[in-house]
Design brief:
Helix content: 25-40%
Low-confidence stretches: none
Largest sheet: 8 strands, parallel, barrel
Keywords: Glycosidase, Hydrolase
Strand order of the largest sheet: 1-2-3-4-5-7-13-14
Family: Belongs to the glycosyl hydrolase 1 family.
Pfam family, one: Glyco_hydro_1
Organism: Oenococcus kitaharae DSM 17330
GO cellular component, one term: cytosol
Strand content: 5-15%
Distance between the termini: 35 Å
CATH architecture: Alpha-Beta Barrel
C-alpha cells in the first residue's frame, strides 16, 4: 500500500517487558510433584568459553539422576522465583511492564510427560503467577517449551526423536489452553526451535558419540515432530480460544559475507537459509525447496505420517518472534569459531564484543527485522535481547550498569528505525529482566537483569533483590513508549 506518512516511533499499545525461562529462575525442582526436566541434568560449564550444553550421554543422565543436589546443576535452584514470584512481579510492575514472557515447565504439569491427568499443584502455581500479573495489568506471553521437557520422555522415547512425544506435548498444550482461556492472549510454541540442530537441550534426544550423519538424521527428525506438534497446538488454540494468538520463536542468526566475493555472499545466503528454514515451515506451512536439496545431499530422510504436510499447511503461526544477540560473518573457505548463543562464524572487525565474546551489532537487529518482515509479512516480536555482563554490587546496594543501558539503548533505537521502515513490530521483551542462571554455562556471574539477585555461582547468597541503574532507565523508556532513551 502506497503511503506518504510514516511512523515516528513505537505504536500505541507496544508491548514492553522482559523474558525469562522456568528452568533458569524457578528453582523448587523437586517441589509439589514436579518431575525432573532435561535442563536439570546438564552440568554447569567448567569454562564459560567452552560450552557443554549438548555433551549429555546416557551415562551422564544416570549420574545426574543419582545426584540429589544442585551444586553441579544450578538450574535446579534458579533464583527461587517459585517462592519470590510476588516480589519479582511487583518489581516488573514498578518498571511499567506491559508484558512478561515466561515459560510453563512441562514437568510441573506432567511430571513424566505422558500421564493421563495433570498435576494440579503445578497448575495452581501458574494460576497464582497469572493472578499476580493480572493484579498489575501485565499481559502474560507464555512459552510452551523452553529447553525443559520432562526427562522421562528422553528415557522412554529418546525425546522428540520419538513420534509418541507429539501426543504427549499436545495433551499438555490442550490442558493449558483450556485452563487459561481468556487469561493468556499470547503464546509461543518452542523456544529457539532452530537450536534443535545442536541436539539435546532442545530435542531431548541423546545422540552424543554417533557419526555426524546419524546425528543430523536424529535431530531433523526430532525437529519435524516439533513442527507437527506446534501446528497441532496452533489448531488447538484457535479452536479453544479464538481471540488468542500463537507464534514461533527463532534464535535469529543474521549472517554477513566476509568479503564481496560472490562465493562468500552465497555462503552467507546459505547460512541465513538454514536459519530461516524454521520460520519458513512454521509461518508458510511447507518445507522449502532449498532444505529439500540439503536433506537429499546429506542423505537425511524425514519420516512423515500421511497427514503431516496437511497439518503444517493448514496451521501456520499467527506471528513470528525471535531472539537477537549477535551477527556472524561467513566465508566459503572456513568454518569460523564458536561465538556464543549457538552461533558459529568469523569475527567482524567493525564490532565490539561482550565479556563473553558475543559481538554487539544493533544495526543488525534492524536488518533482521526488515528482512523477516519482507519475507513473511506477519507481525514480529523481539522476545529476547540483552547483555550478559559481570556486575558489581556496591556496598551501598547500588549497581552502576551504564554498559547495559548503552547496549539496550542502541538496540531500541534500531527497532524504532525498523518501525519507521514499515515493520509491524508487536513488542520487545528483553532478556532477562532479573538476574538468572545462564542457559549456556549455568553460571550466575553472567548477569542480564535490571534487578540484581544476591547469589553467586555456587548458590551462596541471600537472594535479596536490588534495583540496578538500568532499572530506572527502562522504567523511563516504557513510560515514554521508547521516546526517552537518555
Amino acid at each position: 500500500m502506497y503511503r506518504t506518512s510514516f511512523p515516528k516511533g513505537f505504536p500505541e499499545g507496544f508491548l514492553w517487558g522482559g523474558a525469562t525461562a522456568a528452568n533458569q529462575i524457578e528453582g523448587a525442582w523437586n517441589v509439589d510433584g514436579k518431575g525432573l526436566s532435561t535442563a536439570e541434568v546438564v552440568q554447569k560449564a567448567a569454562n564459560r568459553r567452552e560450552l557443554t550444553l549438548d555433551g549429555v550421554t546416557q551415562a551422564s543422565i544416570q549420574t545426574a539422576v543419582a545426584d540429589t543436589g544442585d551444586r553441579l546443576y544450578p538450574k535446579r535452584r534458579g533464583i527461587d522465583f517459585y517462592h519470590h514470584y510476588k516480589e519479582d512481579i511487583a518489581l516488573f510492575a514498578e518498571m511499567g511492564f506491559k508484558v512478561y514472557r515466561f515459560s510453563i515447565a512441562w514437568s510441573r504439569i506432567f511430571p513424566d510427560g505422558d500421564e493421563a491427568e495433570p498435576n494440579e499443584a503445578g497448575l495452581a502455581f501458574y494460576d497464582r503467577v497469572l493472578d499476580e500479573l493480572e493484579h498489575y495489568g501485565i499481559q502474560p506471553l507464555i512459552t510452551l517449551s523452553h529447553y525443559e521437557m520432562p526427562l522421562a520422555l528422553t528415557e522412554k522415547y529418546n525425546g522428540w526423536a520419538g513420534r509418541e512425544v507429539i501426543a504427549d506435548f499436545n495433551r499438555f498444550t490442550e490442558v493449558l489452553f483450556k485452563r487459561y482461556k481468556g487469561r493468556v492472549r499470547y503464546w509461543l510454541t518452542f523456544n529457539e526451535i532452530n537450536s534443535g540442530t545442536w541436539g539435546f537441550h532442545e530435542t531431548g534426544a541423546v545422540d552424543q558419540g554417533l557419526p555426524e550423519d546419524q546425528q543430523l538424521q536424529i535431530r531433523y527428525q526430532a525437529l519435524h515432530h516439533q513442527f507437527v506438534a506446534s501446528a497441532i497446538a496452533t489448531k488447538q488454540l484457535h479452536e479453544i480460544d479464538p481471540k488468542a494468538k500463537i507464534g514461533s520463536m527463532l534464535a535469529r542468526m543474521q549472517t554477513y559475507a566476509k568479503t564481496p566475493d560472490p562465493l562468500d555472499v552465497r555462503a552467507a545466503q546459505l547460512e541465513d537459509e538454514k536459519n530461516l528454514f524454521f520460520t519458513d515451515v512454521q509461518a508458510r506451512g511447507v518445507y522449502p525447496e532449498y532444505m529439500n536439496r540439503y536433506f537429499a545431499e546429506h542423505e537425511i530422510k524425514i519420516d512423515m505420517a500421511d497427514n503431516d504436510e496437511q497439518i503444517l499447511a493448514q496451521n501456520p503461526v499467527d506471528f513470528l518472534s525471535f531472539s537477537y544477540y549477535m551477527t556472524t560473518v561467513t566465508s566459503h573457505a572456513d568454518q569460523g569459531d564458536s561465538l556464543g548463543n549457538l552461533a558459529i562464524g568469523g569475527r567482524n572487525p567493525y564490532l565490539k564484543a561482550s565479556d563473553w565474546g558475543w559481538q554487539i551489532d544493533p544495526v543488525g537487529l534492524r536488518i533482521s527485522l526488515n528482512e523477516m518482515w519482507d519475507r513473511y509479512r506477519k507481525p514480529l516480536f523481539v522476545v529476547e535481547n540483552g547483555l550478559g555482563a559481570v556486575d558489581q554490587l556496591e556496598a551501598d546496594g547500588h549497581v552502576h550498569d551504564n554498559y547495559r543501558i548503552d547496549y539496550l539503548r542502541a538496540h531500541i533505537q534500531q527497532m524504532k528505525e525498523a518501525v519507521k521502515d514499515g515493520v509491524d513490530l508487536m513488542g520487545y521483551t528483553m532478556w532477562g529482566p532479573i538476574d538468572l542462571i545462564s542457559f549456556s554455562t549455568s553460571e550466575m556471574s553472567k548477569r542480564y537483569g535490571f534487578i540484581y539477585v544476591d547469589q553467586d555461582d555456587e548458590g551462596n547468597g541471600s537472594l535479596k533483590r536490588y534495583k540496578k541503574d538500568s532499572f530506572f532507565w527502562y522504567k523511563k523508556v516504557i513510560a515514554s513508549n521508547g521516546d526517552d532513551l537518555d
